[in-house]
Structure formats: C-alpha cells, structure tokens
Amino acid sequence: MAMMTSDSDFQVAELPMTEGVEVDPADVVAADAAALAFAARQGGSVRESAGDEVGRALVVVVDDKVAHGDIENPLGPLVGELLEEAGFHVDATILVPGDEVEIRNALNTAVIGGVDLVVSVGGVGVGARDVAPEATEPLLDRRLRGIEEAVRSSGLAAGATDGGLSRGLAGISGQTLVVNIADSRAAVRDGMATVAPLAKHVISNIRDF
C-alpha cells in the first residue's frame, strides 16, 4: 500500500519515518557541482532565479523496506530539496514497494493531480522487483528518449554505475513529465542535475502547446 508525505495539495497522512531525516549538506554541494558541470556542458544556467517557480512536482520512492517502514527514507528528502532548489514546489513524497500496480497508481496520482513533473526513484535495475519502467511505460503518451539517454550518459560520466545502467524511462503523460532515476545518492545527485534543466524546457513547451 502506498504511503505519502504531503502539503495541502494532497489529503494524506504524514509519514513518521521521514520525520527528522535531514539532507546531508555534502549531497547538496555535490548536486550543485554536478549541476554546474552540466550547465557548463550545455552553455547555460541550471538554476532559476529566486522566486521564479517552475511548477509543481511529486516524488515517488520505490523501495520495499522504505515503503514497509523498515528503514528511513533518506532519498525522498534529498530529491525534494534538489527540486525546490531548481524552482519546483514539491507537493508530496509517495513511498511504494517494488510492485508494478502500486508504482503505476502512484504515478497516476501525480498525473491526475496535475503536477508538472513526477520523479520516481528506484526500481530501474535488473532485479525481480525492479519494475518501475514496466509500470511507467503504459502511462506515457510520448517517450523522451533524449532525457533517458542524458541521465544514463551523465551517470556513467559521474561514476554512478546504477545511473549509467538504469532502465529508467522518461516521457509525457497528459501534461505531466515523468522521469525514472536510480536510487543511489550518486545517481540521484547527478540525475537531478541532468533532469532539472531539461524538465524546465519540456514543461515550458507543454504549457505552450
């Protein structure tokens, strides 16, 4: 059963397991370094100016132990903070096990809720419970293979092996951008540095459509 932390946009219960989980400043510094490196390669800036909100986002953490409350959820807060630094308002973090139906329902929550971006973390490897891509694909109206390959390429370049070997998908469902990333800290830091500027471009185009 999916579990969620939220703001007022979603009527859900708070998750005790995420309370007191602090983002390691070193992770944010590393993410900023990755973002600057990505911006240098692209010849542009990754961050929005203060006060410029890009849109609404939702985070889906795919992990059996986290979803069942066996361990804390360190990556959800990290992804949330990186999204907020990129200019997004994070509506909620949903915790789900590695179950295809549960993952698809969580992603649907984001699409139906009208968020601009949903990032799922985990479930993109080759294990029996790594079914995030299978859960995601039926929801996508259009695949964005450029984002998928950018995340994998940057992951390999940064030494995040799971990010480089990820089977994660990216695409548009309705007017929501959906992206799967791997669940190591290195993969999250580098993946978010790569996804954020590309997401802004995609979201801008969706709105103009």
From TrEMBL:
Report if keyword Protein biosynthesis is assigned: no
Q: Which residues form the MoaB/Mog domain?
A: 58-202
Q: Which domain of life is it from?
A: Bacteria
Q: Which Pfam families match?
A: MoCF_biosynth
Q: In which pathway does it act?
A: Cofactor biosynthesis; molybdopterin biosynthesis
Keyword field contains Glycoprotein: no
Output one GO BP term: Mo-molybdopterin cofactor biosynthetic process
The alphabetical list of record keywords is: Molybdenum cofactor biosynthesis
**Would you tell me the protein name for this molecule?**
Molybdenum cofactor biosynthesis protein
From what organism does this protein derive?
Answer: Gordonia oryzae
Task: Provide the taxonomic classification.
Answer: Bacteria, Bacillati, Actinomycetota, Actinomycetes, Mycobacteriales
